[in-house]
Fold this protein.
Amino acid sequence: MVQLDPDYVEGKKAIADRDWSRAITAFSSAALRDPRNANIQSYLGLAYRKSGQLEAAFRHYDKALALNPRHRGAHEYVGEAYLSVNKLTKAQEHLAALEQICLLPCDELEDLKEEIDKYRASSSR
C-alpha cells in the first residue's frame, strides 16, 4: 500500500473542514517534499482563493496546469477564480479546456458550467 504524505492528508482534511489557513500550511509543507505534484498545487490554489488571496491562488493554479495541462480540478478552480474577478472570457477558456479533456461528463466540467451560468444570471440583473 502506498503511504500518503501526512501533510497532504492533513491538507485534504482541512479542505473538507473549510479551514483554509490550515490547508495552506499543510499543502505548503507537502509541496516542499513533492514540488511537481499538480494536485498539491491545485489544492493550494483552492485554499488561497477561498481565503481571499487571489494572487497566490492564480500562481498555484498556473503551477498545477504547467505540471499537468489536463488537470481537471485546476481548470475548474481557476475558472471559478476568474469569475470572482469578473473575467468571464478567461473562465470560458477553462470550460472549453474541460470540454476537450472530459470525453465523458465529469464533475469539474458540470461544476464550472453551473458557476458560469450563475455568474451570467447575476450579471444580467
